[in-house]
Amino acid sequence: MGEEVKRVKRIKAEGKVVMDYSILTKFIYEKDSHTIDFYREKSSGYKALSKVLTMNPETIIDEVKKSNLRGRGGAGFPTGIKWSLRSKDNRPKYLVCNGDEGEPGTFKDRLLLSRLPHNLIEGMIIAAYALSTHIGYVYLRGEFAKEYRVLEAAIKEAYAARFLGKDILGSSFSFDLYLYRGAGAYICGEETGLLNSLEGKSGRPRIKPPYPAQFGVFGMPTCVNNVETFAVVPWIIREGAEAFANIGTEKSGGSRLFSVSGHITHPGVYELPLTVTLRELIDKCGGVRDGKKLKAVIPGGASSAILTHQEIDVAMDFDSLVKAGTMAGSGAVIVLDETVCIVEAASIILKFFEHESCGQCSQCREGSHWLARIFHRIERGEGTTSDLNLIPEICSNMAGQTICAFADAVTGPALSAIKKFKKEFEEHVFLKGCPFKINNGPNPNGEKELSNVF
Amino acid sequence: MSFNNQNIVVNKRRMYINYCSDKKPLENLEDQENLENQENQENQKNRPLKNKINIDGKEIEFLPGDTIMQAAERGGIAHKIPRYCYHPGLPIAGSCRMCNVEIEKASKLMTACSTPASNGMVVHTNTSKVQKACTGVMEFLLTNHPLDCPVCDQAGECELQEYNYEYGPGTSRFSETKRVFTNATTKRLSDKITLNMNRCINCERCIRFEETITKSYELVMLNRSWEKELTLSNYESDENDKDDEDKMPTKGLTSSYQGCLADICPVGALTFNDFRFQKRVWFLNRQPSICDACSKGCNIEVHFENDIIYRYTPIFNEKVNRHWMCDRGRISYHDVEDSGRITMPFMNTIDSHLHSVEWMTVLSYLKSTLAIAKKVLIILGTDSTCEEAKLFINRIPSLSKGEVKVCFYNGTGDVSSSKDDEKIDYLLQMKDQTANTKGLELLGIPPLETSYVPDSTDNTDSTDSDVVIYFRSGRAGVGGRGGLELKLKSSASLFLWGVFYKKELDKAALKQIVAIIPGLMTVEKSGTFINCDSLSQSFTSAITHKGAALPADVIFQIMILENRSAIRS
Fold it and tell me: What range does the domain containing B455 cover?
């Protein structure tokens, strides 16, 4: 377990709330945490790397397997298994870090990139050594300008300290790391869409199979992992896989960064073990803002199904959330209090998806547009009762039948909203308007805000 | 004629242009292999186990690497699987999601076009689950489709219509405003292609065609999601009016295969201007034929009504043109109904004017001229069929007692024989713009001596023929540089026989011409062409000629019969 895991405590730093113990967030708000000197002195940085370079790649992969680390990007695929599926032929292999953090409500990778870039770099070098890869790319979201500069400086530092480049630390292993900025598409967070974008094409997901492990970027075997996944790897190597596995549940080890936002007293990035329940998480963040009642929670970013306030006694690990009918996603917890109109919230989420669909598959392209229009219409008070029956049918035609999981991401919030808050939808239809706006009197900015959205 | 080539008679079975495939049943492939190496029978036993897939109860053998759709093509049951983005000649996109099939032991529906077939797979193409999914896709595709079938040129051969009839929901539940691209409702992508983006279903066949077949990369999808818009990638904006998006780009589509874009477009988004608003497709009769615009001999389907041709479309032939056809060949049908085409027998009088005469007048004149000629020269254009060439070789000696010499002349570009022939692009087009140069060579006919050509450097005087007959079907440039002028001795009489145009008859040419005997174009007659790859292809007449022209064999019959009757009398 090590000394780093202490009792969970909440402190305030730079106006945001973090847990002060931990794997990743221990030094996150300290001054100069993004520099290599700080990383090497205070958080024993690059020690794991020198340990790794004497190890057999197979042992490293076994270690990661034992740690039960699951991908932090959204799908939660076991990282060790992903690494062991690597191609063993002589083709050049690539390592790609998915830094296209576009899921609405998620901001954990941004924090890691700007505050702890060396965690990521060290994790990538270790992964590269384990996968015998010599070229790595960090695909950064286009909007991350500051993070790009920080990471660029960090890579320069790492090159200067001979952690990157030829013959790292005197071993015969070489690794080059390149930065690539996206052009602003949510779908490039999907790994094959990201690979297409990295190749300079438009970011559209590819048909799978072949999987990136066999046919990735430039047609070569590629391993794609999330920023957070790479960032925790040095800790696993340093402290041991068991220590990491012990923190989490049986199937998913370690702690996880949760980006908590919405109507919460202390929004921010929290690092918590995966055993924590959603209710505990909300309590740790200071509860619902202004003493209001909780109405609903979106537990895994905008693409996950909405949970009502009765359903929040669910553990935040991958499997429990799937059982509860939603998903862990990127760990973005959006808290909605009683003043929120669910139709409006879903309408805004769907507007986002309508705009971000890559437009390849018929269902996704037309369906996301159709759903967004219907939700917008209901919110404006122009909905009909037949719309309420139509929405689940459109969703059932969309889900699970497309190249990537985007269509499922669209149907998640739409379907859960209309299933769990059907009364609210019916109210909209019968009152011919949004009850929240009608009951609370005219909202001077409400109509304007909506017209900006649409 | 003895050729070692397979004689392909164009299949008369009506094939839908988007449905023909290059995937053959494996049994046939094996037969061919067996014929080729019969001694390898022992190896047959050691052959790896046959891969078999069961599609709707039919066992089909497939090659490793085939997808389910390709396996279905091998079994001849690909029509059971609906598709939009899949085209056998293009790479797989897997984006329309229409080709859903149910695979036993698979949790969800899979797309037939992109799922690899595996041994022992059991596939169902028409379960209720598949039907429901296809209906769902149809409904999505139709949400933003304008449904302007009454004014759409694709109506009748539109895949959206066909599959909607089979799978589509009868009514629409879409009550929102439809997507309209005001700038791209009728947008000229070039002088050949018109785009109506509102009708587009985003299958992106056109983009993949440009990327993989012509490699011109001229089309791209702008934007994403439901706002995707097909655009020219070579847009060159004018500095002065950058805001004017309606303006036609200075450089439109430039490829020579733009007609194929309209062919492969499953809906009416891309239409070929030449055929646009000319005819409803259900009125058209279809007859397979061979394109005679170059020596490639692309397999085409002639679409016509009341013996008026409206368009040519390519037919799949793996050995010749695959699915494609060039634009020059596609619009070459206009020559058939050219207003300047001579379709009446003409004779030249002393005042150097052509006068229309009766058939018997010109034929008896030709016969009598031949009968007294000492030296007869017959110049066959390389666009004449093998059958016509043999007619001339066999029949002229029975009409003339003089010395008969037969030679061929090409006259297109710088081609004089098949040795000069070469590809002028990466796909189909050949330098030789006549269809049968190889065929006439294989018949043993020599090329025309260069001393007859006016602008050649050869000045040897061998032009001593009394009677010269030019025969062609309208493509070969008989005479120098596409004109009709030849170096002949002044007393020689020149007969033009076949397809000629008024614009070719300039004053210099008229001095030599004695008579014009009208003949038939390729689509009006039957015959055999041998293409640049020595592949012999036969065809039957597609349309009936509407003028007074007669086939060459009929003319010979008339002349020979008349001969006999003269003997009798």
Answer: 346-566
Q: Which residue of B has its CA nearest to A355?
A: B225
pTM value is 0.86
Question: pLDDT band at residue B11, thresholds of 50, 70 and 90?
Answer: very low
B379 and B322 in a common domain:
no
- Would B439 be classed as within a structural domain? yes
Domain C-terminal end among B281, B306, B336: B336
φ/ψ of B151, rounded to 5, equals -110, 10
Q: Are residues B319 and B425 in the same domain?
A: no
| Nearest CA distance, A86 vs chain B (angstrom) | 21
- Kindly report the number of other CB atoms within 10 A of residue A59's CB atom: 11
Query: Does the CB of A187 have a partner CB in chain B at under 8 Å?
Result: yes
B262 to chain A, closest Cα gap in Å: 21
- Say if A361 is an interface residue toward chain B (CB within 8 Å): yes
CA of A207: which chain B residue's CA is closest? B94
Of B94, B98, B137, the CB nearest to A403: B94
The beta-carbon neighbor of B144 closest among A354, A366, A377 is A366
Which residue in B has a C-alpha nearest to residue A374's C-alpha? B176
What confidence score (pLDDT) does residue B474 get?
83
Task: Round to whole Å and give the CA distance between A197 and A180.
Answer: 10
Question: Please, which residues have CB within 8 angstroms of residue B228's CB and are 6 or more apart in sequence?
Answer: A359, A365, B202, B221, B222
pLDDT at residue B373 tops 80: yes
**Shortest alpha-carbon distance between residue A4 and chain B (Å):** 44
- Per DSSP (E only), the strands in B137-294 are 187-188, 193-195, 219-222, 229-232, 270-272, 285-290
Instruction: Note the pLDDT of residue B217.
Output: 87
Q: What is the 3-state secondary structure (H, E, C) of B454-486?
A: CCCCCCCCCCCCCEEEEEECCCCCCCHHHCCCC
Residues of B whose CB is below 8 A from A380: none
In Å, how far is A242's CA from the nearest CA of chain B? 35
Strands B187-188 and B285-290: unpaired
* Chain A residue with Cα closest to B203: A360
Highest mean pLDDT of the ranges A152-156, A211-215, B75-79, B253-257: A152-156
Chain-wide mean pLDDT for chain A?
87
pLDDT at residue A434 greater than cutoff 90: no
How many Å separate Cα B86 from the centre of its chain?
Answer: 22
A5 pLDDT more than 50: no
Q: Which of B293, B313, B336 is the last residue of a domain?
A: B336
Whether the per-residue pLDDT at B322 is higher than 70: the answer is yes
Residues of B in contact with A363 (CB under 8 A): 97, 136-137, 140
Task: Measure the N-to-C terminal CA separation of chain A; round to a whole number of Å.
Answer: 51
Neighbours of B227 (CB within 10 A): 15
- Residue A80, pLDDT > 70, answer yes
Mark whether B93 and B230 lie in a shared domain.
Answer: no
Interchain contact, B226 vs A361, CB within 8 Å: no
CB B101 within 8 A of CB B109: yes
- ipTM score of complex: 0.88
Rounded CA separation B521/B552 (Å): 11
Closest-CA distance, A137 to chain B, in angstroms, reads 25
CA A201 from centroid of its chain's CA atoms:
23
Residue B62 pLDDT: 87
Position A11 scores a pLDDT of 38
Cβ neighbours of A451 (radius 10 Å)? 8
* Same domain for B251 and B194: yes
Mutation to test the B interface, candidates A350, A361, A374, most B Cβ within 10 Å: A361
Whether residues B237 and B350 share a domain: the answer is: no
Question: In chain A, which residue's Cα lies nearest the Cα of B172?
Answer: A390
What is the rounded average pLDDT of the residues A307-331?
A: 90
Residue B225 is nearest to which of A369, A374, A398, comparing CB atoms? A369
Q: Do A401 and B201 touch (CB under 8 A)?
A: no
d(CA B466, CA A86): 83
